[in-house]
Amino acid sequence: MHIPMPPEFSKAAAHSAGRQVTIGKHDVAEKDGVFDLSIGLNYGQSIGSAQLLRWVTEHTELVSRPPYADWRCALTIGSTGSLEAAYRMFCDRNRGDSILTEEYSFSTALETAAPLGIKVFGVKIDDEGLIPASMDEILSTWDETARGARKPTVLYTVPSGQNPTGAMQGEQRRRGIYEICRKHDIFIFEDEPYYFLQMQPYTGPNAPALPPPATVEEFLGGLVPTLLSMDVDGRVMRHDSFSKVIVPGSRLGWVTASEQVIERYIRHAECCSQGPSGFSQLITYKLVDEEWGHEGYLKWLMNLRLEYTKRRNAILAACEKFLPREVVSWTPPAAGMFLWLKVDHQLHPDAATRCLIDIEQEIFDLCIDKGVLACPGSWFRAEQDKPLSGLFFRTMFASASEEQMAVAIERFGAAVRDSYRMG
Amino acid sequence: MHIPMPPEFSKAAAHSAGRQVTIGKHDVAEKDGVFDLSIGLNYGQSIGSAQLLRWVTEHTELVSRPPYADWRCALTIGSTGSLEAAYRMFCDRNRGDSILTEEYSFSTALETAAPLGIKVFGVKIDDEGLIPASMDEILSTWDETARGARKPTVLYTVPSGQNPTGAMQGEQRRRGIYEICRKHDIFIFEDEPYYFLQMQPYTGPNAPALPPPATVEEFLGGLVPTLLSMDVDGRVMRHDSFSKVIVPGSRLGWVTASEQVIERYIRHAECCSQGPSGFSQLITYKLVDEEWGHEGYLKWLMNLRLEYTKRRNAILAACEKFLPREVVSWTPPAAGMFLWLKVDHQLHPDAATRCLIDIEQEIFDLCIDKGVLACPGSWFRAEQDKPLSGLFFRTMFASASEEQMAVAIERFGAAVRDSYRMG
Ligand SMILES: Cc1ncc(COP(=O)(O)O)c(C=O)c1O
Ligand SMILES: Cc1ncc(COP(=O)(O)O)c(C=O)c1O
């Protein structure tokens, strides 16, 4: 079996593009490798193949070095699937279980909780995401009857480049969140598809860029520590995914948690997914272990960092050029692929007479008329029955070209101006 | 991307072994195909890629031609996953829902139902599998209080080469089962990983073999009709899988049912698996559509038929040679990969003083001592709390060589002789 490198993503990756790697049927028996078709394509363990599992475990050790002995990894069919399993493992509708998350949260995570009958409550956010004090207040004043649910036992959070707000929790913020979780004995689902899309600091439209990390060590040392790395209690289940850093179509990721949690996870996988696709595992293994190794993979991520930095800077430049700064504001994203645009609803000419959701819909429709999709904040509300707290739109800088992004932002600006009758 | 044909399975398949197929990144844009890496490896629809979905739909039309208009297919991550989803769609522990299945049933299916809180009840079986009259009686005399569950609303059945009994429901048997399901308004999960492993009729150790089907049409015409093909009410959800006919590691299959059921299935997949691996879909598509086409795939299945016929005949020959016919009997399997050995417990020297499960364990342990694994019937009981109805052992003729199978059967025979003190 011959596999190509993943679609070349940046010029910097070109050195490894176009190479071919070979996977034979009996490489292992023939002492030509440790993972081959005869192993990868048969029924395997639900935890994943020993080979790729070893690799992700080493990688996790390099990145997070969890501060307790009996942590383990298990391969998954991606974070959507592992998150659904985690909900089912930790929450029970019959017990009235509930979870906390950012007040604007990843819509699929919300849609996954809903059919399981798990109630979701939103925690206030700022530029650094979830606010520990808000979480503490909610938990300290929990009234089961008024809330119609048991006091939450789980926090679902996306610490880096959160979807949809793009917010990045800094190290102190993370430590603060972890402390509140200890105080109220909350288990944490750390969902981190964008962790390795931490970008170069944004220096503004005209200042020179900072030099990128020169070495793999510098790159790793510069990343904000993971919640898993702070987890002295074994209360974190971290969800990693290859979706945003290699290809989403692999449907491949992994979870890391205490041995007890992983054991439950595997039991679940045995009567559900039976582990990820052997093709996906084989191809990914060949790439990240045999072709790249840990250092090569980290270099790949360093390239992604620069690629996303460029894209982020391009969308910010477009915003600065095309958006009416009097009413639209934003925080330059430090990670991920989302830019969250805040529109000052108090300045809207109809602010006194129309409700927010109405104005949001108007701007959304105007955008569609102009040929651009800006996802409205209401789609991401953790509590769908609460009034909106502001006018927000999520934009993305993952795949469009710089020119396309500029056109999109210009159209969004025009839609806002139309709605605000800025002439 | 270059992919090989699947591991060559029989000499008859050798004509296509070793070929290479190429998948490019932008074949579609470059008009060199309809499915490429840029499509297959991105996020896709949870129902599966349009290309492979079209293929499985055409294949289902060829094989089952469901007798109503709005049937649809959806790709799955294999039958274990689709079955788990189906249980969750159709059954609710809070309602006390229950299902029926063969009294000895696929252990993973039982283990999947258990954590969902779904009660499973066994239907009596004979050489042709599930007995409609037994099902009718159970349903007609259902006593909710005595049973501790609502009257079953779902039948889970494996009509062809059932796991573990190897039983094959004939056409009349299937029609009988369907009629009872209509009478009691039972929905059917038709789980058919072994459907295409229907073998040549067994003609005994010495009689000449019958000629195999000469054409694809003859092959298709000779298969026992599917429950789906009889489904005038839309009460069947059929689960197909590539696991037993291409490779299990693909984690790829599909379901077929009414549009309404498939719509629910897709909503489920959207917040769980998000559809099967893009690598698995691409490689399978290249193989079954571009390389083989429908006719080529059916010819592949015809080869499997002969290969399994050979293996089945070999294990039966070993049984005739090595087993003590006074106490061990069997029905030559007509489909699948399992041979179910019945041991006459009434003839056991301790029949009057020891319980069945004890004797079963003894034979199992004796087998292990001699280096052979024979799965005891108790592992497969639909109702684990009921006494065993007989002494059964499941053997398999899927992957061992003829020599290995002979050794295994010889050892099993010796274990039985030891236990029966036939010395
Ligand atoms: C926060 C978050 N988690 C998980 C996912 C999905 O990851 P996967 O492809 O591994 O299921 C996404 C994708 O958009 C996401 O934004
Ligand atoms: C009856 C039956 N259904 C389903 C399966 C599993 O199929 P899949 O690999 O598609 O999950 C098996 C495998 O042993 C089986 O025997």
Compact description:
Chain A is α/β, with parallel strands linked by helices. Chain A is 38% helix and 15% strand.
Explain what you see.
The structure is a homodimer of 423-residue chains. With 423 residues, chain A is an alpha/beta fold. Chain A has twelve helices and 15 strands. In chain A, strand 12 and strand 13 form a beta hairpin. In chain A, helix 2 (50-63) packs parallel to helix 10 and helix 10 (278-322) packs across helix 12. Chain A binds chain B through residues 1-4, 6-7, 20, 25, 37-38, 40-44, 77-78, 80-81, 84, 94, 108, 111-112, 115, 243, 247-252, 268, 270-281, 283, and chain B through 1-4, 7, 20, 25, 37-38, 40-44, 77-78, 80-81, 84, 94, 108, 111-112, 115, 243, 247-252, 268, 270-280, 283. One pyridoxal-5'-phosphate is lined by residues 78-80, 106, 158, 163, 191, 193, 241, 243, 248, 253 of chain B. Chains A, B: Belongs to the class-I pyridoxal-phosphate-dependent aminotransferase family. Chains A, B: It holds the Pfam family Aminotran_1_2. Chains A, B: GO terms for molecular function: 2-aminoadipate transaminase activity; aromatic-amino-acid transaminase activity; pyridoxal phosphate binding. Chains A, B: InterPro entries: Aminotransferase_I/II_large, Class-I_PLP-dep_aminotransf, PyrdxlP-dep_Trfase, PyrdxlP-dep_Trfase_major.
